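Morning run. Coffee first, then this:
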Amino acid sequence: MLRDLLVPLTGTAGEPDALSFAVDLASAHRAHLTVAVPLDLPLTLVNPWGFPPDAVEAELYPRLREEAEARAASVRERLDREDLSWDLRVDDAHYVDPARAVARNARYADLCVIPAPRRGADDNDVAHAYFSVALFESGRPVLVVPEGAKAPKKFERILVGWHPTREATRALHDALGLVAAGAMLDVTVVDPVEGDGLHGEEPGADIAAHLVRHACKVTVHRQQSAGQSVATRLLLHADHVKSQLLVAGGYGHSRMREWMLGGTTRDLLAGTRIPLLFSH
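And here it is:
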């Protein structure tokens, strides 16, 4: 059940679409919406002689705070016109970068909504940073909103990119809070190996039986990649069945400072035209 959403203002090109999506999603579920405005402050450093930071640093904080408050005021004006429960916070990230401040806030929400990176955009690296840290550090599912995506009143057709792993299992069960009663779930397995100790003798059958007990309508699709990537097969199939949402496990190496996303996760982000829900 969806009761608490977080949407950060990332400053990227996709921010308006993500905010609109989050507002509509919160309204549809009668959920509370928190908007986080990260304040990107320089890390306070002591100089080699032990003196405190100089006056330049001291003057920088009020200006950055003023800019963040101006952004917040514009969003408050917009949210005042909406019929939903909301709050807005300006987060002073003195000791963490803005993305990590968002991950911290996301731990107190059911879902974090962020914009998708746009291929070739100047702010692509920033969008990836927010996604990666939210996915690997918050412990919460992340819903990625591509350009122009609109939140439906109900998610009635969902494609599940299924592989019997911890990440995919977590993503699927996180998605159930968004799924309307009687929704159609297209469980899609790419290049399954029967009897491999993971999929079993009939790939997709066990997870389908489990989902039916959650009052979902389920169809299992076994797809061959035929030389295409897993992400391409999933996106093409999502388009074919007219899915409103694609659900997948998010993979990567979270111990590295510069986040390295798994190939399927990265390719889904780059190629999607529908919202994606990832969990790790």
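The first strand starts at residue 4 and ends at 8. Good start to the day.
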